[in-house]
Structure formats: structure tokens, C-alpha cells
Amino acid sequence: MDSPAPGAEKPCIFLLFGDDTHAMESFVHGMIARMGDPGMAELNTTHLDGKIASDEDLRTAVSSLPFLGDRRLVILNHPLARTQGAEGKKRFLALLDEVPPFTALVLLVEDQPFRGDWDTLRAGHWLRKWVAEAGPRALERVCGLPTPGDMPGWIQKEVRKQGGTISPEAARALAAAVETNTELATQEITKLLTYVDGKRAVEAEDVDLLCAPMGQGNIFDLVDAAAEGRTANALRELHTLLEFQDPLLVFGMLTRQYRLLIQAREILDAGGGAGEIAREMNQRDFVANKLVRQARRFSMNDLKAVYHRLLQLDEDSKSGQNDLMTGLDIFVAGA
């Protein structure tokens, strides 16, 4: 499943965290692909949610022998939900110490940047310390979204990964269209490479023809209306976006916008202004000015509460508790 140096100890615990959920999903999909036959891989893969699974569920999953294979893969979302209180943390660490070499336990933690670090798994967090001290038994992977300035390079790398080529101008044009949405960028790259059919590099004209921009202005208008209590206007903006975009992409746009506002609010709270936001967040001046105006409508606690509501909406839609379209309506009505 993994590819350490010959004779080296394979990691048993993988800690993946950050705000690039697409990167985390890709990492996990790569692990599953390396398990060989898809049918056997499915038999040897267990998905658990730390908010629902019991300690016994987790202990059984990690200790069960693989079926006709070398390793079992256990994927645990929301692992920190199993660590409430001193006793919960103690039990969880004991379980990590007992993970056998035939099991790969993947811990997935969605997080967001905050004050130059991460909101939950900060540099001194006990779980990150445990991973660092575990040596070759554990591996940490930070999955952070690229900055707008890094996005063209990320796109060029992904194009090469998919077996194609793209001009620098086209990479910049696609970055402008998708912003830092790596999942959307991956989809658009696949579409562009299919269009050119491997006969030539993707050019800026192809991006203009096939890739619609995400619609930054409408997102600003939507958040403005929601912040001011103009619910009818906010819902109208939402439904306009949904006429042209898939609900999943609109959700990504909303999530990104509130993440930008958290970063902008942090800079404002530290005494900065539009200039610092433009420079530190690598945004154009007109976007920085809009972020200042909008971030001042919220406190940091308000923004973090809204962001956590978005994370809950994502969880509910993935678990089938609520469809995303309805969830977006409810979110905007209560924002």
C-alpha cells in the first residue's frame, strides 16, 4: 500500500489535515489503488466516523486481520471526536500505540488556516506531537489549499500528472477561472485534456472556450445580503448561482469566501488593512477592498461559527441526512 525504502518500517498511522479535502481524498484513493484488486481492496477497507463509531468499533476495525491481502485500511473521519476529555484522549492514544503493522489507520481532520497556523491542529497540538514522536510508525501530511499565486504552478503539475501539457498563459487563465478550488481545477483539467485529445498543449483560448469563471461577484453579493439580514436577496443570489453552477461548486465558492473572510478578519484584528490583505493573501486590490468591507460586518467568532455550519452542511449532504440544494437554502436563510 505504501512505498517505503526496502526493509524500512511501513507507517501504520497517517494523519491528514488541512483545508484541501480534494488532496486528502486523492491521497486515500491512491492508498486504495495500491491495494491491488478493487474487490479485495473494498473488503479490506473500513470507513468510520469518529462522531458515531464507538471505541470498540474502532478497536475491532484496526485489529482485524486483512482478508487475502497484506494490509487493512481503516479511514477515520473526525478522529478528534473520540478524544473528548482526558479519558477519551488517553484511550485514543492507547489505541494508536496498539495499531498492528498489518493495518493502515488514516485520520482525516478538516481544518482551516488561522493566524499563520491551523485552527485546530496547531503546531503544538498533542496529536501532531504524538505523530512526530512515533517515528516511522506514523506519517503527517498537511493538505493546504494553494495560494492564488501558487495556483498556476499547481495546475501545471496536475496537467503533467494527467499526462498532458499546458501553456503558462493557459495555466494562469484557468487559475483565474477556478481560483483555489483544487477539485474544480482537476475536473476542468480533465475536460481540457479530453478536448485537445493529447494532440497539443492546452492553450488560453481553450480555457476561454470551455471553462466558465466561478462568479466572485455573485458570492460577494450573496454574503453581503446574508450579513445584512436581507434573506430574500441572499436566496435570490443563491438561486441565480445555482442556475449556472452545480450545487457542489456553489458550496465550494461559499466555503472559500468565508475562509477568505476569516483570514481578512485576522489581519484586521491585528491592525492591518486592505494593503496588508492584498499582500499577505495575494489578492488584487479591488478584491482586498471588498474583503475589508465585508469582514467588518462580522466578528471572528461569528465567522468561525458560520464556517463550522458549512462543515456541518458538508457532512450532512455526504451522509445523506440532507441534500445539498436544500442545505444551501437553509444555510443562506440562517446565515
UniProtKB/TrEMBL annotation:
InterPro entries: DNA_pol3_clamp-load_cplx_C, DNA_pol3_delta-like_C, DNA_pol3_delta_N, DNA_polIII_delta, P-loop_NTPase. Keywords: DNA replication, DNA-directed DNA polymerase, Nucleotidyltransferase, Transferase. GO terms for molecular function: DNA binding; DNA-directed DNA polymerase activity. One of its GO terms (cellular component) is DNA polymerase III complex. Coiled coil: none annotated. Residues 217-332 form the DNA polymerase III delta subunit-like C-terminal domain. Its EC number is 2.7.7.7. It is an enzyme of class 2 (transferase). It holds the Pfam family DNA_pol3_delta_C. One of its GO terms (biological process) is DNA-templated DNA replication. The keyword Transferase applies. Transmembrane segments: none annotated. Residues 14-110 form the DNA polymerase III delta N-terminal domain. The keyword Nucleotidyltransferase applies. It catalyses: DNA(n) + a 2'-deoxyribonucleoside 5'-triphosphate = DNA(n+1) + diphosphate. Belongs to the DNA polymerase HolA subunit family. This is DNA polymerase III subunit delta. It comes from Longilinea arvoryzae.
